[in-house]
Write a structure and sequence with these properties.
The protein is mainly β. Helix content is about 0%, strand content about 40%. It is built from no helices and 8 strands. It has strands at about 5-10, 15, 20-30, 35-45, 50, 60, 70, 75. It has a 6-stranded antiparallel sheet with strand order 2-1-3-4-5-6, with no helix packed on it. A two-stranded antiparallel ribbon has the order 7-8. Strand 7 and strand 8 (about 75) form a beta hairpin. The two termini are about 20 Å apart.
């Protein structure tokens, strides 16, 4: 899914992309559209980076699929597409 900026993290900080690369410990929060986002570990200057909790690989947020899911509100996918379990 496409994460819309700015993002407000659960620790209360707000991140505004500035074209620079950023990294941080895995964190969750909400994007400006109110969608829950999880497992964010950085921003490469153009897109958010997420770490799949299954394979521990880091991918661009859009690599988790174009659509999120709905669980107590809109949210992103936690696992990358190759490791998503639909069972």
């Amino acid at each position: 899914m496409i994460i819309t900026s700015p993002v407000k993290f659960d620790d209360g900080t707000t991140f505004f992309p500035d074209g620079q690369s950023h990294s941080w410990a895995k964190i969750n929060g909400y994007d400006s559209a109110g969608c829950r986002i999880t497992n964010i570990v950085g921003h490469d200057g153009s897109d958010y980076l997420k770490k799949c909790p299954y394979c521990n690989q880091i991918f661009h947020a859009v690599d988790y699929g174009p659509a999120g899911r709905y669980t107590n509100g809109p949210r992103d996918q936690s696992r990358c597409i190759p490791h998503r379990n639909y069972n």
